[in-house]
Amino acid sequence: MNTKWKATLICTLLALSLTACGGEKSGTTTTGQLESSPVAQQTEAPKSSYPEKAITITAPSGVGGGLDLTARALSKAYGDTKLVSQQIMVENKPGGGQAVGLAYYVTQDKKNAYNLFLPSAPLIINNLKKEGNSPYSFRDLTPLAQLTTDYGAIVVKADSKYNDLKTLFADLKADPKSLMIAGGSAPGSQDHLIAMLPALKAGVDAKTVNFISYDGGGEAITALLGGHVEILSTDISGVTEYLKAGKVKVLGISAPARLTGQFADIPTYKEQGIDAEFTIWRGLFGSKEMPADAVAYWETQLKALSETEEWKKQLEANGWENGYKNAADFQKFLEEQEKVIQEVLVSLGMQK
To answer: Pairing relation of β-strands 115-117 and 55-59?
Structure first.
């Protein structure tokens, strides 16, 4: 091959090479078709259509109980605000201090996004105590948000000689059997712990204190007013009407700081030198394997509701504090409260 033909062949090959390189840069293939860029290949994630039907909240209490009232207040507030387009119904599953409702809920479809669960602190207590009646705990659910906050109260009749916890616990320390304490739940349950936690911190032998269990807060306060017991251990919202009527005195409240409004004059346990607090919460949960889009939906909607006037009216009407916590903070709180409850039950010899 002579020099002229060699030069021509080299130029031809060089031209073809440059054309190929230019084609790559311009986004074309050797066939002249446009290449699919990463952006073109991406498809927009389908938007969730949840919820598409009515939603049920299971309240593990009877009609008119605190959990039932909270569930119905939630339903009403969502109806008033129109934040949720679907109807929200309430289903009651009472029994066993919330254990019956919990067992019913946990053993249903673990991926159900249309049935929610609304319990309170016995969710933890029943799983930890020796004579507890639930093998389940919050770990068998998906926490969505804490809704309300209430606090424990140690209450006496208006004409009682006791005006503060220091004097009361001094007498109980000297003779734990000298006074009787009433509560609307079984030993080791919420009302019992409300009184025993500060008693233990005050040096009282809580194992020997006379705790009388009644079938509900109504019967327990009747026993106090009738003079059958000297002390009532309950939640502060449950004695509001009796406090207003001047029938009782609240010696201390289990809040971390003084409450406002009608309870502003009541000192906390901590103010009286007793390093103890106990939160009575109510929260909303989903099934253990609730789909991610449903979890995200409720996290958004529950936060939005907590900031509305409609929900604030429901809280005020029922004497509840706005205890909203998002899912992550609620999970952390549940783990912390579990440790506190376990500590008290160990001290009482009532742990599993």
So the answer is: parallel
| Measured distance CA(202)–CA(205) in Å, rounded | 9
Prior bond to 51 cis, omega within 30? yes
Q: What pLDDT does residue 72 have?
A: 96
| pTM across the whole model | 0.79
- The per-residue pLDDT for range 306-322, each reduced to its tens digit, is 999 999 999 988 878 89
Cα 249 to Cα 23, 150, 168, 178, 205, distances in angstroms: 88, 18, 13, 20, 24
pLDDT reported for residue 46:
55
Instruction: Give me the sign of the Cα torsion angle 61, 184, 158, 321.
Output: negative
How many CA atoms lie within 13 Å of 51's alpha carbon, on the beta-carbon side? 21
Identify the helix (H) or strand (E) that includes residue 144. strand 142-157
Q: What stretch of H or E contains 27? A: none
Residue linked to tokens 């598409």 = 52
pLDDT at 38: 43
**Three-state SS letters, 150-218:** EEEEEEEECCCCCCCHHHHHHHHHHCCCCCEEEECCCCCCHHHHHHHHHHHHCCCCHHHCEEEECCCHH
Whether residue 203 is predicted with pLDDT greater than 80 in this model: the reply is yes
Confidence of residue 8 (pLDDT cuts 50, 70, 90): very low
Q: Which residue has the higher pLDDT, 142 or 40?
A: 142
Q: At what angle do helices 309-318 and 292-306 cross, to 10 degrees?
A: 70
Sorted by sequence, the CB contacts under 8 Å of residue 205 that are 6+ apart come out as 173, 176
Asked whether the beta carbons of 266 and 259 are under 8 A apart, the reply is: yes
CA 111/CA 71 separation, integer angstroms: 21
Per-residue pLDDT, averaged over 7-20, amounts to: 42
Count the alpha carbons within 13 Å of 111 in the hemisphere toward its beta carbon. Answer: 3
